[in-house]
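Our preliminary data section would be incomplete without showing what the modeling component actually yields. Below, a chain of 292 amino acids is followed by its predicted structure, encoded as tokens that our downstream tools consume directly.
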Amino acid sequence: MRLFSFYIFRCLIILFRFIPFPLLYVLSDFLRFILKNILRYRVSVIQKNIDYCFPDHSEEYKEDCYQQFYKQFVDILLESIKGLSTPEAVLAKRYKLKNPELLQDYYEDQKPIAIYTCHYNNWEWGPLTMGRQMDHHIVGVVKELTNKHINRFIIDGRSKNNVTVIPTYKTAEYLSQDFNKPPTKCLIFISDQRPSDQSKGIEVSFFDKKIIFDHKSAEYIKSLDLPVYNANVHRLRRGHYEIELIPLANINGNSTTQEITNSYVSNLEELISLSPSSWLWTHKRFKDYITY
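Predicted structure:
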């Protein structure tokens, strides 16, 4: 069954190669209606998550957030598939790093760095485009997919153009054996999902609530004494994004794992407040605090 799913996935990639972006968004509008109104995909989860984070906002505000989120959510699903068959030069024009010069001194001094990002706007095009917009060699830490065939295909597709992708369970091994070898590296973490193992989490304040966030990434950053930035992905319009690098606030070589995690979460909260519909609300992120 998983092999069959893989072949369906490959067929979709081939099909999407020939769909121009304007037609892609016509398809997105149609699929959004099907998913949201007929299949009701994750509707309850999305609404409960939004309500949990914004209890004091009006029902009109939360409803607008839900409606706008679903529109962007389906866009990103289709963009992610199309990105796997779109030339990197085409994607790079649509997914631009605004200020790579912030990292140049580190690269010239052969100093590795770390970048935090999150499931906000289109995160899938990052591994496909950022390697050619930065001098550091990107090492992306990702969770593996349950379908091993699709997982291998996606990892192979991402592990090129100055990018290496490693699964989370191999991070410690990679850092001890290969991280300090040339070329100079940039570690990238997406750390805004609920830790599967709560013992690997750390409690932080998130929208005035105590929430468990992953802190292994902060531990790695602390142990390697890495300068750390946030990569904030801003949506300009459909299919066009700008990535802005922001130094992690109030962090230095003496910062603790808790302080690093707090700063990351604070930046995430600011992004969500800026555009609530841009965060990924479909996961049961708060299952330890609410009933889905």
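Residues 2-278 form one domain. Strands lie at 95-97, 113-117, 137-142, 163-167, 185-190, 201-206, 209-214, 228-237, 240-247. Preliminary results of this kind motivate Aim 1 of the renewal.
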